[in-house]
From TrEMBL:
GO biological process, one term: nucleotide catabolic process
Highest taxon of the lineage: Eukaryota
GO molecular function, a single term: nucleotidase activity
Species the sequence originates in: Agrocybe chaxingu
Descriptive protein name: Pyrimidine 5-nucleotidase
Signal sequence coordinates: none
């Protein structure tokens, strides 16, 4: 999953990983939220303060970890080991042949396929291996915990970094699917041409330590855009027919 070695003018399809390549019904976000909350408590914060900071940092920085590294001198790799790294992913998600077939049916003469995640590399690669998609991903853009003040979705600089890493200069050639509406709207705002919100409406996910029912409502103040909502990734065949092989 390395960077391209030469200019490549194909379209590029960006897939988010967590709660997109697998269903929110796996409850991975819940398990992660519990571990992050425990990490806050390990910093000798009382439960109420820990809960408030968990939500505040997630809301303000996009990831609780970014607040922890800025304000509590936390080692991000220690956080990764105790939170993402301790998740029993093999017991929570599994290979889905129909998902692999979806990736195989993307016409690689027209498009490259990359993953774009707010997780660290080790977690992202672990999920892709379990789902048996790692050999179908051309590249991976992740949050580099080793970089001071690293960026993440939905910050515009993260999308710009992703394009640079993938060697693409025309944002209109970017296709993107993510379960987080803020991330999708941000991609639209930087000119990504074909954005889809993966929305398992009615299910629950944990964000910032709070249980949230998934819905398809746009964030307050979000610009009007042409985002399409899908409830399964298989719907991408109808939404983006131009990137798939002719049947």
């Amino acid at each position: 999953m390395g960077e391209p070695s030469r200019a490549d003018d194909r379209l590029i399809v960006w897939f988010d990983i967590d709660n997109t390549l697998y269903s929110a019904s796996s409850n991975i976000s819940h398990a992660m939220g519990i571990r992050i909350q425990a990490y806050f408590l390990s910093l000798d914060l009382d439960p109420e303060e820990a809960s408030e900071l968990h939500l505040k940092y997630y809301t303000q920085y996009g990831l609780a970890l970014r607040g922890l590294t800025r304000h509590h001198d936390v080692d991000p790799l220690d956080f990764d080991r105790k939170c993402d790294g301790s998740l029993p992913l093999e017991d929570m998600i599994s290979y889905d042949p129909s998902l692999r077939k979806l990736f195989e049916d993307i016409d690689r003469t027209k498009a490259r396929v990359w993953a774009l995640t707010n997780a660290y590399r080790t977690h992202a690669e672990r999920v892709l291996r379990i789902l048996k998609l790692d050999d179908l991903i051309d590249g991976l853009v992740y949050c580099d915990y080793l970089v001071k003040d690293f960026s993440c979705k939905p910050e515009p600089v993260f999308y710009e970094m992703a394009m640079k890493q993938a060697g693409i200069t025309d944002p209109s050639k970017c296709y993107f699917v993510d379960d987080n509406r803020k991330n999708v709207d941000a991609a639209c705002s930087v000119g990504w041409g074909h954005c889809v919100h993966f929305c398992e409406k009615g299910l629950e996910a944990m964000e910032g330590g709070r249980i949230k029912q998934i819905d398809d409502e746009r964030e307050p103040g979000a610009v009007d855009n042409s985002v399409v909502d899908v409830t399964t990734l298989q719907e991408l065949r109808q939404v983006w027919p131009e990137i798939f092989k002719a049947s």
